[in-house]
Design a protein that fits this description.
The chain has 399 residues and is an alpha+beta fold. The protein folds into 4 domains: 1-45; 46-60 and 286-396, conserved putative lor/sdh protein from methanococcus maripaludis s2 fold (Beta Barrel); 62-70 and 200-283, Elongation Factor Tu (Ef-tu), domain 3; 74-197, OB fold (Dihydrolipoamide Acetyltransferase, E2P) (Beta Barrel), CATH 2.40.50.100. It is 31% helix and 40% strand. The protein is built from 6 helices and 20 strands. The protein has helices at 3-27, 32-44, 108-136, 142-167, 309-325, 329-342; strands at 47-53, 55-78, 83-88, 95-96, 101-105, 170-172, 177-182, 189-190, 195-212, 224-229, 232-244, 254-261, 273-290, 295-297, 300-308, 349-355, 357-361, 365-370, 377-381, 391-396. The strands form 3 sheets. A 6-stranded mixed sheet has the order 14-15-16-20-1-19. Strands 2-9-12-11-10-13 form a 6-stranded antiparallel barrel. It is rod-shaped, with a radius of gyration of 41 Å.
């Protein structure tokens, strides 16, 4: 065990023993005198706490959240014609470009249909040419000539359709990206609209955060976003906010922030779980304390300040003197005699509740704008066991 770990363990042990002493004193039975002594012992027992001094440091304001990475664009490649799959040119994990050939379907029947449509088209083109010649010599009526022309136009459409269906036997990539899934094998009979491949474009990858409404005016497009993923613990990836939704969801009270990440190392993958932080402000020389010292209750933000007992006693004496100044002489004498009788030595340290105004914060520290001075010590461990004016035993905490 390291020396620092041993010191921490010793402090924890002292805390536990002191609390145990308080409990035992409170639980002791006996006569009224014994109970009174126990109560006095309990009152005189200082509550052990850990305290840390307020210090100046650089602090950033940031928003943290989690999101699952998803591809910026993705496409599911589906068959546009029936047919047997005869060739595969790519596999899962392959990078492809838009228009690249991925697979080939049996094209025998579409090719024959195209040849048939082409032959019929040539015949009708010849028929229409002769029809025009006869129509020019007044040997053919307008209706007969128009019928042949309409038949020719219909056949041209049939030919174009047959040529298009033949092109559908060659499966091409609609977008550039990576083949993330292959759903067919060579020899499978493919039905119309059957899914064949999934293509994901990982450049960039997107992470969508649902951010509380209070952050609406702090997050803006272009701000830098840091991210860590559990599966790549040694790296921190940097991206930017791509867009911010201008609409707040009335049901959840959140708005969407889309962040983009471009990873040249190609280690980031779609579906990874990311922990994101967005720094939107920085103060270079801010007075800070650990977040553990903050008390937020009844709409107020406060801390317990470590104050010398002699200072508290002196202030109490000044306040009492002011109050006694307005009393009659006999009341002053009685009060003075009572104070002398009940006087007790002041504790070394006392917890004093102090309201503070906070500013920027990160996961470990919070900026104090008002209420504390540099070097003031605040209670971080044991604050739930003290109240304003409680006598305390101070163990130095860890920043």
């Amino acid at each position: 065990m390291s020396r620092s770990s041993a010191n921490v363990a010793n402090r924890r042990l002292r805390l536990a023993l002191s609390f145990l002493l308080i409990v035992l004193l409170a639980a002791c039975g006996g006569t009224d005198a014994d109970k009174k002594k126990a109560d006095e012992a309990k009152a005189d027992t200082a509550v052990p706490v850990e305290a840390v001094a307020a210090t100046r440091r650089e602090i950033s304001a940031s928003y943290t959240g989690v999101a699952t990475l998803e591809a910026d664009s993705e496409a599911q490649v589906a068959a546009k014609i029936n047919g047997a799959l005869v060739k595969l040119f790519v596999e899962e994990g392959d990078e492809v470009k838009a228009g690249q050939v991925l697979a080939k379907l049996d094209d025998e029947n579409p090719r024959l249909n195209l040849a048939k449509a082409e032959a019929t088209l040539r015949k009708l083109e010849n028929d229409f040419r002769r029809s025009n010649e006869m129509f020019g010599r007044k040997l053919l009526s307008v209706e007969q000539n128009d019928k042949i022309r309409f038949d020719l136009e219909t056949q041209r459409a049939t030919y174009d359709l047959a040529r298009l269906e033949l092109s559908y036997t060659t499966i091409t990539a609609p977008i550039s990206g990576v083949i993330s899934r292959r759903m067919v094998k060579v020899g499978n009979y493919i039905q119309l609209n059957q899914a064949l491949f999934q293509i994901d474009n990982f450049d960039p990858l997107l992470a969508v955060l649902n951010v509380p409404e209070r952050e609406l005016h702090t997050l803006q497009p272009g701000q830098v976003v840091g991210m860590r993923v559990d599966s790549i613990a040694d790296a921190r990836f940097e991206g930017r906010i791509q867009r911010v939704s201008p609409v707040v969801d009335a049901q959840t009270g959140t708005f969407r922030v889309t962040c983009e990440f471009r990873d040249a190392s190609k280690r980031l993958k779609s579906g990874m779980f990311g922990r994101l932080d967005i720094a939107y402000g920085k103060h270079e020389d801010a007075l800070t304390i650990p977040r553990a010292a903050l008390i937020e209750e009844d709409g107020e933000t406060a801390v317990f300040l470590v104050v010398a007992g002699s200072e508290v006693a002196a202030q109490d004496a000044r306040d009492k003197a002011k109050a006694d100044a307005a009393k009659p002489a006999d009341a002053k004498a009685a009060a003075s005699e009572s104070d002398a009788k009940d006087a007790k030595p002041a504790p070394a340290w006392v917890a004093q509740r102090r309201l503070v105004r906070i500013g920027y914060g990160d996961p470990a520290h919070i900026e104090i704008l008002d209420g504390l001075a540099n070097g003031d010590r605040v209670i971080t461990v044991g604050r739930s066991a003290v109240r304003d004016g409680t006598a305390i035993q101070v163990l130095e905490g860890v920043q």
